[in-house]
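Anyone else keep sequences and structure tokens together like this?

Example one:
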Amino acid sequence: MRAAPLPSFRARILASALLTALLALGLTWGTSWLTLHTLFPPPDHDPDPSLVDACLASPRTWDGVVVGLETLTAYDESGRSASGRQLDLAGWPELRVGESHAVEHDHHWTRATRASREGPCTWIVSEEGPPPELVLAVRWGGSLGVFLALLAASGLTWVVAVRPLVLRVERLRDAAVLVGRERYRSAADPVPDALGDISTALDASNERIVADRVELVARHEALERYLAEIAHDLRTPIGSLLLALQEVRAEAGGPAVDRALIDADYLGTLVENLHQAARLRYGLDVGEGTADLRDVLARLEVRFAALGAARGVQVAAALPDGPVIVRCTPVLAERALANLLHNAIAHGARHVAATLSVVGEGFRIEVLDDGPGVAVPADLALRTFDASADRPRGAGLGLAITNEIARRAGFSIAYERAEEGGLRVVLQGPRTAAG
């Protein structure tokens, strides 16, 4: 069973601060009560019998008499004093003569003594304790002092311990996120503890990853250069082989010649794509020079009509009367369109049509086939040299090169499902002033 995720580091610190505040509140009030209890303890003595005798001797004078720390008042059996004050007898238990009962309210003690059965001194009430304003002052003064002390201690703890720890953890987090990247920034934590060890380990990991990446990039570039050189050397003999096979097919033909022609064209396309891919990766300027798309498609129609015939595929192109000039390196423009036609022929189409038209100040090329198509045609436009995780995997070097050429030349390309169930590719862009 997977454990529930722990709260974030900051959330735990805030929760700890809240619990500390609640603890401080309880401690504050507890300290206040203890202070008041210490300063004003409950009386632990019983009424002096002589005071009772004195009250019985002159009851009219016992109304608010201060004796020591006590204030004494005599009440008759109905609970009335000489000055007319009324004692709530219902709030006291039944007491026998000579018995006392005391109650406490906010550190103020009141004791009632049954002095006699009747008469003006039936009840003698003693009140002892500090004034309410003094209790309030002590309570709030003590509470404020404890609270300020706890606040100062908490603030000091935050400044000295918690805040530096949070900053160290955040620097480690930022460093961990960028390990192996060019923007990596060391946490630079020299403290000899666990966090410092993690910082040192992150720095070592980053150095190792960067060194490995540099070595891998160097090996990759060397391999690409090697492949580009091989592709360049193979272009001429494969081109000659294609011409020879086309001549043989025109004179004799046969299934074996058709298979050889298809295989030779596949090799030629693969070699040409490898060659152009290497050039594109090393910053080839796609917009260097101009190309006449009409001438390019006319040449490709002848070439792929012969290849299509060997596969049983009809290839045709519809071209405008005049030239269609665009800003693009001619060999790259031809490679981009050749990949679209080759893709249509190689994936089960029986008919392939390419249409070039002039639209306002731009052009539109539509390559349509009646093959099986693909599940999500729009994903084909994502095939580029980008190494992001969202890029579709699998074969597709030719389409990746076409998409990259279109992007660098400022053209738009879209892949759509045709009404007949095949694939429609639409390539659009501006013409140059010469076009």
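And example two:
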Amino acid sequence: MKTKNVLVILFSVVLFTNCFAQKESKKDKKNKKGDITTEVVTPAAPEVPAVPAMPEVLVVTEECNINISLFNESAKNKQYADALAPWSAAYKDCPGANKVIYSRGREVLQWELSQAKDDATYAKVFDKLMVMYDNRIKYFGNDARYPTPWILGLKGLDYVQFAKNDEIKKPAYEWLKKSVEGMGENSELDVLRIFLTVSNGMYKADATHAENYISDFTKVSAILDQIIANTALRTNAGAVQLKPALEQLFAQSGAADCNILDKLYKAQVEQNLTNKDVLTNIVSLYKRVRCIDSEVFFSAAVALYKIEPSAESAAALATMSYKKEEFSKAVAFYDEATKLATSAEDKAEYQFTNAQIAYKELNNMSRAREYARNSLEFKPNNGKAYLLIGSMYAKSRGIFDDPVLAKSVYWVAVDKFVKAKQVDPSVADDANELIRTYSAYFPSKDDIFFQPQLKAGSSFFVGGWIGESTTCR
């Protein structure tokens, strides 16, 4: 019905958008199936002084609804050439009619970019894509599910993907930052990833961005922790995989200068001595970037341990005890960390560290071997543990008074070096070097002539603290 100042029927189409990061729940789909809205346009009342004007009511023509239906159907079938004309008409004539103009519009414009034959055409379509996001914010920025911060995240992603001749992608930084800050744990994982990647690139181009980059990393890391803790979120599994990758990016960036970290986190530690979550994040960050000699790190670790002893806080206290040359305390804390750790890899590392301390600092080789063997129980392919045991054996000639028998320690030492490279190819070079070095000290033929029990190929028991059998050669 088309008459002046009468009812205007607003037709909506069934919308289902499958664009990136705009997935709808079953409930959303159900609600949209009958999404035909009737809106009454009240005839304008006579102007009355002192009474505010009624807000403008959006009128959507039948032609606009037809265009929406046409481009939506075509885009759903990836027939973007057919979708372009009706989409352009709807975008121009009724930009506030429906979100589908923007969700499908993103697909249509991305396709149009792929069809551009020259740089001028590409730039024109690219600008249209960027402006489209501004218009979406204008008309749908208050949408409960996909608000302005979410829209800015998509805009940033598309800028990074499609902007030519811009390596740093700096314009996307602010959009992505606002998105991350606004969406929090509801952020799309790609937005978190690209935000930190862009920040990393800005730091590489300009070292003065270091503090911002560290702050960005801390922010993203905390959000990922929230997502990981909330198993109900659809992004939970992806966050578990993404976090270590971003930690690696950050650790390799060189931005994490320990002095800068201390300036950033000293006050935070002092103000959060009873906040487990804050302290955990700080301790983890310092460990990742190897700033474990810092007093700020130590203060955070002590406070965290008092709240709730954990493997990480115990290991942090062990590190600081070692730094202070309180070696027995360090060993005790690493033992505590081993008990509290949930990862066999971590348990193996803590026990191997104790083996090194017992050997190098406490001069207790039998205890060091015990710790090395403990490490191997948790990680059988820990070649470093075998190298350590072999090195200790090679330095134990004193267990025999007879100088020829004393050389038997080199046999058992080489046994361990051979075992090390068998279980762990990563230590093969070190193992081969040790084998060459200590094989030169094997008993000679003349030595064995006076020691018939050392005949080549026969078994020999090396006593003392070693207490292992080997093969004479």
